[in-house]
């Protein structure tokens, strides 16, 4: 009998809950959305703002670039070597200076070559004189045609010997084959040099060449005449513009790469300003991008 009040109280609570739910559904109109709850802003706080920037949609091409490491080299380089042996008589350059094409770099003792040339020229003069007399005698009928042929042959031989003597004499002077900067000489006045012995290197540093490799997969992005930008480790704040002028058709099998060569103008020899202009041809490496 003591359980009855508890049961009656529970039924009353359920009845009150049902009545509240029925009252709420009566006040809401059909199809209306429930009211949104809003949290009151704190006192003194500014309402949050959202900035929106609008722009037209358009299609643009993004540039593609390849960065690789290359090596700078002289446009032309040669090691001056004598073609005939002899003793160094004079040196006509200073190390590190600029020389013009055709300038005499080294002179060998040419006393023997000059004597040979004098003998060859004397023989040539004698052969000419004999040939002229033979023609006169042939006109008078005193000698045969065979004698005329022998005189003409002796004249040609004398002419060839004279030309040979002049060529030997000319080889005693070593001349610059092109404009450029002289390196460090390997001989001194009075030294005896042999054929093919290294004397000095000559470098043409304007323009410079740069050799670099690109991956095989990028062969479609490389073409003749393409421009590029070059930066040096020695001059990180500067960049130099070059242009591709040669692509090696032979693929480097070891690295599966294309070997490409470009030219970079260097009119003031600015690649390595800290050393003499002659070393502007050989910085350790360069970074190339295009």
Describe the protein in words.
By secondary structure, this protein is of the alpha+beta class. Among the domains are: 67-76 and 202-289, Elongation Factor Tu (Ef-tu), domain 3, CATH 2.40.30; 110-171, Helix hairpin bin (Helix Hairpins, Orthogonal Bundle), CATH 1.10.287.470. It is 28% helix and 27% strand. It has helices at residues 4-27, 111-140, 145-170, and strands at residues 67-80, 86-91, 98-99, 104-108, 173-175, 180-182, 192-193, 200-215, 227-232, 240-247, 257-264, 286-289. The strands form two sheets. A six-stranded antiparallel β-barrel has the order 1-8-11-10-9-12. The protein has a four-stranded antiparallel sheet with strand order 5-4-2-7, with no helix packed on it. α2 runs antiparallel to α3. The chain is elongated, with a radius of gyration of 47 Å.
